Fold this sequence. Notes:
The protein is an alpha+beta fold. 20% of the residues lie in helices and 38% in strands.
Amino acid sequence: MHTPRVRVIALFVVGVGLLIITLALTSGDPPVSLTVRGYTTNSWRTDHSDGSRKYVVCAIVEFTNASGCPVIYLGNRSSNFVDYALLYPTPTGRKNPTPRAVDALGFWPFKLAPSEAITFEAEVDRAKPCKVALDYSDGRTPGRLWQRLPPWIVQRLPWAKNSRTVMTDEIDLVSTRQ
Protein backbone atom coordinates (compact mmCIF):
# COMPACT_ATOMS: atom_id res chain seq x y z
CA MET A 1 0.00 0.00 0.00
CA HIS A 2 2.79 2.40 0.83
CA THR A 3 5.08 1.12 -1.93
CA PRO A 4 3.83 3.44 -4.75
CA ARG A 5 4.05 6.43 -2.42
CA VAL A 6 7.63 5.53 -1.41
CA ARG A 7 8.61 5.17 -5.07
CA VAL A 8 7.22 8.59 -5.94
CA ILE A 9 9.00 10.20 -2.99
CA ALA A 10 12.26 8.44 -3.88
CA LEU A 11 12.03 9.56 -7.52
CA PHE A 12 11.30 13.11 -6.40
CA VAL A 13 14.29 13.12 -4.04
CA VAL A 14 16.57 11.72 -6.76
CA GLY A 15 15.28 14.34 -9.26
CA VAL A 16 15.86 17.21 -6.84
CA GLY A 17 19.31 15.83 -6.00
CA LEU A 18 20.26 15.67 -9.69
CA LEU A 19 19.00 19.21 -10.19
CA ILE A 20 21.06 20.48 -7.25
CA ILE A 21 24.18 18.70 -8.52
CA THR A 22 23.65 20.11 -12.02
CA LEU A 23 23.25 23.65 -10.69
CA ALA A 24 26.34 23.29 -8.51
CA LEU A 25 28.46 22.04 -11.41
CA THR A 26 27.35 24.78 -13.80
CA SER A 27 27.88 27.77 -11.52
CA GLY A 28 31.59 28.14 -12.34
CA ASP A 29 33.24 31.04 -14.09
CA PRO A 30 32.23 31.47 -17.74
CA PRO A 31 34.86 30.75 -20.39
CA VAL A 32 34.29 34.23 -21.85
CA SER A 33 35.32 37.37 -19.96
CA LEU A 34 35.23 41.17 -20.10
CA THR A 35 38.06 42.99 -18.37
CA VAL A 36 38.68 46.73 -18.05
CA ARG A 37 42.28 47.33 -19.15
CA GLY A 38 42.31 51.10 -18.67
CA TYR A 39 40.58 54.38 -19.45
CA THR A 40 40.92 57.03 -22.11
CA THR A 41 39.68 60.59 -21.97
CA ASN A 42 40.75 61.88 -25.33
CA SER A 43 37.37 62.02 -27.04
CA TRP A 44 34.71 64.69 -27.31
CA ARG A 45 31.04 64.28 -28.07
CA THR A 46 28.87 67.07 -29.43
CA ASP A 47 25.47 67.42 -27.78
CA HIS A 48 23.10 67.93 -30.72
CA SER A 49 20.42 69.67 -28.64
CA ASP A 50 22.51 72.71 -27.74
CA GLY A 51 25.70 72.24 -29.79
CA SER A 52 27.95 72.03 -26.73
CA ARG A 53 30.87 69.64 -26.57
CA LYS A 54 31.16 67.18 -23.71
CA TYR A 55 34.29 65.44 -22.51
CA VAL A 56 33.66 61.67 -22.37
CA VAL A 57 35.50 58.92 -20.56
CA CYS A 58 35.87 55.56 -22.28
CA ALA A 59 36.82 52.30 -20.62
CA ILE A 60 39.18 50.17 -22.69
CA VAL A 61 37.56 46.75 -22.40
CA GLU A 62 39.06 43.41 -23.43
CA PHE A 63 36.68 40.68 -24.59
CA THR A 64 38.42 37.29 -24.26
CA ASN A 65 37.26 33.87 -25.46
CA ALA A 66 38.93 31.21 -23.31
CA SER A 67 36.47 28.52 -24.40
CA GLY A 68 37.14 25.75 -26.87
CA CYS A 69 34.64 26.97 -29.46
CA PRO A 70 34.08 30.25 -31.32
CA VAL A 71 31.61 32.75 -29.89
CA ILE A 72 29.46 35.23 -31.80
CA TYR A 73 28.90 38.83 -30.75
CA LEU A 74 27.39 41.87 -32.47
CA GLY A 75 29.52 44.67 -33.87
CA ASN A 76 29.15 47.68 -36.15
CA ARG A 77 31.49 48.51 -39.07
CA SER A 78 34.28 46.31 -37.71
CA SER A 79 34.80 43.76 -35.00
CA ASN A 80 36.03 46.46 -32.58
CA PHE A 81 32.78 48.48 -32.57
CA VAL A 82 30.91 46.25 -30.18
CA ASP A 83 27.24 46.35 -29.17
CA TYR A 84 27.59 46.76 -25.40
CA ALA A 85 25.27 48.01 -22.67
CA LEU A 86 25.85 49.90 -19.44
CA LEU A 87 24.14 48.30 -16.45
CA TYR A 88 23.35 50.42 -13.41
CA PRO A 89 22.46 49.14 -9.92
CA THR A 90 18.76 49.17 -9.07
CA PRO A 91 16.84 47.68 -6.13
CA THR A 92 15.87 44.70 -8.32
CA GLY A 93 19.31 44.06 -9.81
CA ARG A 94 21.38 45.58 -12.60
CA LYS A 95 19.42 47.16 -15.45
CA ASN A 96 20.07 48.97 -18.69
CA PRO A 97 17.93 52.15 -18.60
CA THR A 98 17.89 52.54 -22.39
CA PRO A 99 16.75 49.70 -24.64
CA ARG A 100 19.08 48.70 -27.43
CA ALA A 101 17.95 49.16 -31.01
CA VAL A 102 20.29 46.65 -32.63
CA ASP A 103 18.44 46.38 -35.95
CA ALA A 104 18.21 50.15 -36.40
CA LEU A 105 21.90 50.67 -35.72
CA GLY A 106 23.14 48.13 -38.27
CA PHE A 107 24.96 45.62 -36.08
CA TRP A 108 26.26 42.39 -37.62
CA PRO A 109 27.51 39.16 -36.09
CA PHE A 110 31.26 38.72 -35.66
CA LYS A 111 33.06 35.55 -34.61
CA LEU A 112 35.73 35.44 -31.90
CA ALA A 113 37.82 32.28 -32.24
CA PRO A 114 38.99 30.23 -29.24
CA SER A 115 41.91 31.82 -27.35
CA GLU A 116 41.40 35.16 -29.12
CA ALA A 117 40.66 38.55 -27.62
CA ILE A 118 39.65 41.98 -28.89
CA THR A 119 39.62 45.36 -27.21
CA PHE A 120 37.02 48.06 -27.63
CA GLU A 121 36.13 51.39 -26.06
CA ALA A 122 32.95 51.72 -24.03
CA GLU A 123 31.75 55.20 -23.11
CA VAL A 124 31.07 55.05 -19.37
CA ASP A 125 29.12 57.30 -17.06
CA ARG A 126 31.28 59.58 -14.92
CA ALA A 127 28.43 60.35 -12.51
CA LYS A 128 27.41 56.88 -11.26
CA PRO A 129 28.83 53.35 -11.00
CA CYS A 130 28.08 50.92 -13.80
CA LYS A 131 29.15 47.70 -15.46
CA VAL A 132 29.77 47.13 -19.16
CA ALA A 133 27.79 44.12 -20.42
CA LEU A 134 28.07 42.22 -23.69
CA ASP A 135 25.77 39.55 -25.11
CA TYR A 136 27.33 36.63 -26.96
CA SER A 137 26.34 33.22 -28.28
CA ASP A 138 28.13 29.99 -29.09
CA GLY A 139 25.96 29.67 -32.21
CA ARG A 140 24.18 26.52 -31.09
CA THR A 141 20.44 26.36 -30.53
CA PRO A 142 19.10 24.58 -27.46
CA GLY A 143 17.20 21.34 -27.95
CA ARG A 144 13.45 20.99 -27.52
CA LEU A 145 13.80 19.61 -24.02
CA TRP A 146 15.69 22.72 -22.85
CA GLN A 147 13.17 25.02 -24.54
CA ARG A 148 10.35 23.49 -22.47
CA LEU A 149 12.02 23.93 -19.07
CA PRO A 150 10.73 26.61 -16.70
CA PRO A 151 12.57 29.97 -17.04
CA TRP A 152 14.05 29.81 -13.53
CA ILE A 153 15.89 26.60 -14.46
CA VAL A 154 16.96 27.85 -17.91
CA GLN A 155 18.56 30.92 -16.32
CA ARG A 156 20.85 28.67 -14.29
CA LEU A 157 21.74 26.20 -17.06
CA PRO A 158 24.18 27.80 -19.51
CA TRP A 159 23.69 25.18 -22.24
CA ALA A 160 19.89 25.62 -22.23
CA LYS A 161 19.88 29.12 -23.70
CA ASN A 162 21.28 30.51 -26.91
CA SER A 163 22.70 33.83 -25.75
CA ARG A 164 24.61 34.73 -22.63
CA THR A 165 25.75 37.98 -21.05
CA VAL A 166 29.20 38.70 -19.67
CA MET A 167 29.96 41.77 -17.52
CA THR A 168 32.97 43.72 -16.32
CA ASP A 169 33.62 44.42 -12.68
CA GLU A 170 32.06 47.58 -11.26
CA ILE A 171 33.34 50.80 -12.87
CA ASP A 172 33.10 53.61 -10.32
CA LEU A 173 34.67 56.83 -11.57
CA VAL A 174 32.92 58.88 -8.87
CA SER A 175 34.97 57.43 -5.99
CA THR A 176 38.24 57.71 -7.95
CA ARG A 177 37.96 61.48 -8.47
CA GLN A 178 40.32 63.64 -6.46
